[in-house]
Structure formats: C-alpha cells, structure tokens
Amino acid sequence: MRKLRHQRGEIACPESHSQLKNLELTAVGGSDVHVKMLAAPINPSDINMIQGNYGFLPKLPAIGGNEGVGQVVAVGSSVTRVKPGDWVILAHSGLGTWRTEAVFSEEALIRVPSDIPLQTAATLSVNPCTAYRMLMDFEQLQPGDSVIQNASNSGVGQAVIQIAAALGLRTINVVRDRPDIHRLTDRLKNLGAEYVITEEELRKLELKNFFKDVPRPRLALNCVGGKSSTELLRHLAPGGTMVTYGGMAKQPVIASVSLFIFKDVKLRGFWLSQWKNDHGTDHFKELILTLCHLVHQGKLTAPTCSEVPLQDYNHALETAMHPFTSSKQIFIM
C-alpha cells in the first residue's frame, strides 16, 4: 500500500512499499466538482480489485476504494445538480475513494441528504443496493414470505435483514459458528432477523421440523459457495431461486440433478456493476433515493463499523481480511 500526498491531502493506493510523493489537484472548471472525501469503507470487492481478480479493473495507476461519501467544496461553471456543501457519493466504480480530496465530473456524482448518519452515507451505494435489488428482481415476494441467506453478518447480509423486515419478509439467516455466536445472534435479531442459525444447524435433519412452522424460502441469497450454497438450495421451495453474489469460500456452487428435475430450482447471479450498466445512472439514483427514504424512516442503518484514520490503512486492510471480522473498516478522512 502506498500513501501519496498531494497539495490538498493524501491518497491511499496499493503498492509493495510505502513512499510519499507530491501530487496536484486538477483545477476545477466546466463540469468538474471538487470533493472533500469524508468517509470510505473497505469492501471485499475493493480487496478483490487490488488483487486483480475482480470483474472490473481500473486502469493503472489507480486509487483504491469504490464507495464513500464526500462533501462538495467547489464546482465548475456548468455544474447545476450539486453545490458547495452538498454530500455526494460516486455513481461509478473504479474512481477511487481512499483519499482526502479529488476532482470528479458532475455526471459521476449523486447527491445524498446530509442529514443521514455519516457511516450510513458512506456505505449506501454498494451493499444496500445489492440487497434491495436481489430482494426485488428475482422472485415476486409477498409479505410473510421467507428468504434464506448465508454470510448474514456481512454488509449485504445486514442490509438484507433490514430491507426484508421493512417489506414484511421473514429472513432465515445462516452464519458460521464462532465463540461470540450469541452476541452475533442478538445483534442480527435487533436489526430485524427473525431466525439466526449456524451452518452446522442448517445441515441437521431436525431442521425439517423447522419448516413445518416456517414457509420454505422461495429466494436464497448466496455469498459463500461450496457446501453452504448446497445447503441453501436443499431448503428452497419448489421453483425457488438461489442468487449468487459472492464466493467467500472460493469453492464452486454444486447442485444435485434431482433439485433441477424434481424441484425445478433456478440458479442466478447478481453483480451490481452490471445492473448499473444495464439500467443507467438515473435508475441508480432512484435506488439511492429509495434507500435514503428507508434511512429517514429508521428502517435502514449502516453495518457495524470501526472508524479508522486514513493514515492507518495498513492496520485497516489487515483487519478487513481477517476471518470472523464482524465490523466493517471505514476510513475517516
């Protein structure tokens, strides 16, 4: 990780050794917007991008971070949609948020209310958007229907719990067993989770009795792969859909032939970047406004976060990659 200092602040970006270098900000003009970054999280996709194994890679040299919130400092003469003082998030990936200041084009920015919590604004444009679209786009769910997901304590998982609760859906939330499992269970239930079970409990035969009282889920959300995803599929309702949006176990999704023949299950994938490419910036802005409305209603909050100064990026990255990390690392500029 290399830390670069420019005239107006600092930039964190990947490199094999640390060094300092002077950089200058581009002058603001035309459709340019000078933004002071306020906060930016570390997401698994950010790590994947740095490692070079993500679906989209920016041109090098590049600055890390695809999500965050900033405040407009100055605007060019042709800018009409934002003004100094506004809070903004990025409409596109790969622009780099792990820095103190930047100049972006107006079309790359989306204004968000400045009266929502800072951590919520900084983590609004990736995980909650993924959660909302997966809940809305694959099955026509009605209040009372159930959804099952693994990696339920992840950023997306926590957003799924809250958004599903706001929609009247019941969530079956699968997590890995751990020493503080009771604390994690209580935290997820406080967010609106109806059921929290471990991977081991999901594999037990007694779970058949569980589905005598709870409708089998028509939608499963998979961020793990391997055995975990196979278990999700096993409990799907006939004709149900499993949507894969991550592969934390780095193992393939394996489905038995009988599930396709006798239960007609469907396997789908979701990638928010592709959704944005297919639907355009205006639809993405509508999605952000919908989520901000849930925030104002008190139905959506940020995942559990640990605030870290940008200068401590090494420690933050190491923590973000550590197993069983239940708190998202978020740079505070």
Automatic annotation (TrEMBL):
Coiled coil regions in record: 181-208
Pfam families recorded: ADH_N, ADH_zinc_N
Residues of the signal peptide: none
Catalytic activity: (2E)-tetradecenoyl-[ACP] + NADPH + H(+) = tetradecanoyl-[ACP] + NADP(+); (2E)-hexadecenoyl-[ACP] + NADPH + H(+) = hexadecanoyl-[ACP] + NADP(+); (2E)-dodecenoyl-[ACP] + NADPH + H(+) = dodecanoyl-[ACP] + NADP(+); a 2,3-saturated acyl-[ACP] + NADP(+) = a (2E)-enoyl-[ACP] + NADPH + H(+)
Entry's localization field: Mitochondrion
GO biological-process terms attached to the record: fatty acid biosynthetic process
Keyword Transcription: no
EC number(s) given by UniProt: 1.3.1.104
Keywords: Coiled coil, Fatty acid biosynthesis, Fatty acid metabolism, Lipid biosynthesis, Lipid metabolism, Mitochondrion, NADP, Oxidoreductase, Transit peptide
Gene Ontology CC: one annotated term: mitochondrion
Annotated PANTHER family: ENOYL-[ACYL-CARRIER-PROTEIN] REDUCTASE, MITOCHONDRIAL
Function field: Catalyzes the NADPH-dependent reduction of trans-2-enoyl thioesters in mitochondrial fatty acid synthesis (fatty acid synthesis type II). Fatty acid chain elongation in mitochondria uses acyl carrier protein (ACP) as an acyl group carrier, but the enzyme accepts both ACP and CoA thioesters as substrates in vitro. Displays a preference for medium-chain over short- and long-chain substrates. May provide the octanoyl chain used for lipoic acid biosynthesis, regulating protein lipoylation and mitochondrial respiratory activity particularly in Purkinje cells.
The protein's name in its UniProt record: Enoyl-[acyl-carrier-protein] reductase, mitochondrial
Gene name in the database record: MECR
